[in-house]
Design a protein that fits this description.
110 residues; mainly beta; four-stranded antiparallel β-sheet; two-stranded antiparallel ribbon; 8 strands; 0% helix; rod-shaped
């Protein structure tokens, strides 16, 4: 399985952790790595000035519109639509296991 490339975007995704909508993701904190990128071959085009067909030879990376995320406490990458993400407050989840509501990570809470 190919690991998705990503482009970091701390402006759009400033929180340390997020929840993801969906029945399989309830109670789990996720880190956002950034926007998913895919390799796209530059398109062929016809140059009228030189009367030549220019064949695309370069690969460019473009955003897919999805976001690369990793479950806290894991290392597998998943992609989600940005509107599926909800930011979490810093102390609302365990920074070790990623469970929302768990307080066993040793961080000071009131």
């Amino acid at each position: 399985m190919r690991r998705p490339n990503f482009e970091v975007d701390e402006t759009t995704f400033p929180a340390e952790a997020y929840t993801v909508k969906g029945k399989n993701n309830k109670g789990i904190a996720w880190r956002v790595y950034g926007w998913e990128l895919e390799a796209v071959l530059e398109a062929d085009f016809y140059d009228n000035e030189t009367d030549t067909l220019i064949v695309g030879m370069e690969w460019n990376e473009e955003r897919t519109g999805r976001v690369v995320c990793v479950m806290i406490g894991d290392d597998r990458r998943f992609t989600f639509d940005p509107d599926e993400l909800t930011p979490l407050a810093d102390l609302d989840y365990c920074a070790v296991c990623g469970q929302v509501g768990c307080t066993h990570d040793g961080r000071e809470r009131e």
